[in-house]
Amino acid sequence: MHATMIFDGDCGFCGRSARFAVDRVNVTCAVIEYQRADLAVLGLTTAECAEALRFVAPDGTRFQGAAAVAQALRTAPAPWHALGVVIDAPGVRVLAETVYRFVARHRGTVSGCDAEYSSP
Length: 120
Known about the structure:
Helix content: 40-55%
Distance between the termini: 20 Å
Order of helices and strands: EHEHHEEHHHH
Number of strands: 4
Strand content: 5-15%
Strand order of the largest sheet: 2-1-3-4
Largest sheet: 4 strands, mixed
């Protein structure tokens, strides 16, 4: 199994963020819309993926929210890799999750959650 980041393909903000991760951050994990993913193989449900970004490590370990962002960044070259390490640090982790939840709750007002998006 490869490292895989699973995002909401119906969300404009999520799609643009996924595109940025692929095009600019150069993550080396697979980046897939949950609507097109074989969730059973990844050990995930539609409800879980609709709730938050997901990341599945090669060993099958699953992460969500800010922890998923951190893991995806860790697959990228510097300086993004280092940012993933920082986000996952004990003192930063809680703050990162709080910010993630705030953005997730307001993603529709941030940039049109139902905007058309073509997957990376």
